[in-house]
Amino acid sequence: MNGGEIARLDWLTDADIFRARQRTRDVAAAVGLDRQDQVRVATALSEVGRELFTRDPATVCFRIEAGPVPRLLIELSAPLPSAGTGIEVANSPARRLVDSLDVRVGSARIEVTLTKELRRGHIAALDIAAVRGQLRAAEVQLGPLEQLRVQNADLIETLEELRRRQHDLAGLNEELASTNSGVLAMYTTLSAELDQTNRGVVALYAELDVRGQQLADANEAKSRFLRNVSHELRAPINSILGLGGLLLSGQLDPEQRRQVDYVLSSGRSLLKLVNELLDLARAESDQLEVAVAKFELAPLLGELAATLRPLAINRDVELVVEEPEIDALVTDRDLLTRVLRNLLTNALAFTEHGRIWVRTTTDAAGLEVRIAVGDTGIGIAAEHLGRVFEELFQVPSRLQTQRHGTGLGLPYARRVTQALGGRLELDSVPGSGSTFTVVLPVAAEERPDHPHDLRIGHVLVADDDPAFRYVLRGMLDGLAEHVSEAGDGTEAIVMITASRPDLLLLDLRMPNLGGAEVYATLRNSPDPALRDLPTILMTNMPIDAALRRDVESAAALLSKSDLDRATLAGMIAAVLTSKEQA
Ligand code: ADP
Prior knowledge:
5-stranded mixed beta sheet
C-alpha cells in the first residue's frame, strides 16, 4: 500500500457501484466524518463512478493526506470510456458534495480525485493502522436488498436533516425579520428626531436672520434719526448764535452783556454736540467720504498744535510736535486732522502739568505709520480703557466738570481711523498719563520695502522644521519671486552651490550641519558670491550677547518667536541695503 493509503477496491462489474458506495461510507465513518458527510462523500463517489466505470476493470483507492488540514483523498482510476467523459465528470454535481474534484485525462485512462477535508480534532487521534483494521472488520459483503436498505436509511436520514435545516432556517428568518423591524423602528425614530432637530435649526437660523436684520434696521434708524435731528437742531442754534452776536454788537449794559455771553456760550456747546453727533452718525453709517491724497505731515501737525495750544488748562503745560520719521503720508488729510484734533483736545483737557507730545514713527518694515498723542495727564483706569470708546461715556473726574465734553470724540476718532484702514490704540496709566496712537497702513507705493525696492528674486529657507518653512514661505509671498527649501545644513550647502540664491534664511539649529557651521563655511568660501551671500540667521533661543558672539557679529539674527511679516521684511531690507553699501 502507498503512503497514507487506508483501503483499496477493485471495480469489476456494474454491481460493484453499490459495494464502492458502501465502502466509501465505511471509510468516511472510520476517518471520523459525521453521518451527513459520510452520505455526501459516498454519493459523490457513486455519482462519479456511474459516469466512469464500464465493464473494464477499475480501481478506487482511499488515502489520508497529512498536512495543516488533513484530507481524505478518494482516487478513482479507469480506462477512458469516451472522449467527453473528462468534461462530464468535471461538471458532475458530485463536485458540490466534496471539497474538490480533480480530473486528469490521459491517452487511454482517466484519473479522478475527490477530496474531503478532515477536522483537526479527529485526525490528531487518527491512527492509520487502526483505521485499516476497522475497515477490514467492516468489510462484509452486503446483498442487494441489504444495500437498498442502507441507501434508503441514508435517504431518510438526509430528508430528516433537510427538514431540521428548514426549520432552523425558518427560525432564523423570523429572527431576522424581527431584528429588521427593530432596526426599522429605530431608524424611524432617529430620522424623526433628526427631522425635528433640523427644523429647529432652520427656525433658529431664520430667527437669527430676522434679529440681524432688525439690528441693522435699528442701527440705520438711529443714524437716520441723528442725521435728521442734527440738521433740524443746527438751524435754530445758528440763529441763536447769530442773533446773540448782533445783540453783543449793540447797546447793552454790563449785566445784559453777561447774560448774552452765557446764551452764546451755551449755544456754542449745543452746536458742538450737534456737530459731533452728526459726524458720528455719518461715520457709523459708513457715509464717510475718504479722499486719499499725498500730503506733508509736519505742516499739518504744526498747524494743529498752534491752533489747539490755547486750550491748555495751565500755561506751563508744554505741547511738543516731534519731527516725524516720515515726510509725507498718503491718506485723507481732512479726516486725519479731525482724529488728531480730538486726541489733542482731550490730552490738553486732561493734563494739568507736564507735557503733551505728538510723535510719528514707522515700524521696522515701514508698513505702518504710528502717530502717537501722549500726555502726562490724569490717565485712565484699566476698567475704563475699553469704555472710553463707547458713545457718550466719560470718566467721572474733577477735570470733567470744567469742560464741555460730549463723550462722542473717541468713538468718532476710532470710526474714522478704521475708515482710513487703520486702528486707534490706547495705553494709559492712571496718574501718569495716556497715549493714544493712530496706526495707519503705509500706502504700498510709499513702503521702503516695496517688492520692487526689495528686489529679491530667489530666497532659500534652510530649516529642519517643515512647519516653520511653511510659515516663512507664506511671509515671503509678495516679497520674493521664488522660495526654495532645505531641510538641513548639508542640503542647504548643496542647494546654495547649485542654485545661487539671492538671500539665505538659515536656522541655527539643524541636524547634520547647524546654521552656524553653514554660515562659517560660506564666509570662508573662496567664491565671493558665496562669501557675500546675504544671510539672516534664525533662532528659537533668546538673542543675547553670547549668541551674537557665537554666530559672528556680522550676521543678521532673527528671533523666531516674535516674527511677523513686517519684521521679516524690515530685516531683509536692512540686510540687502547693507550688502549694497558694502
Ligand atoms: P469727551 O472728550 O468729549 O468727553 P471723548 O469720547 O473724546 O469724549 O472721551 C471720552 C472720555 O475719555 C473723556 O471724557 C475722558 O474721561 C476720557 N479721556 C479721553 N482722553 C483722555 C486723556 N488724554 N486723558 C484722560 N482721559 C481721557
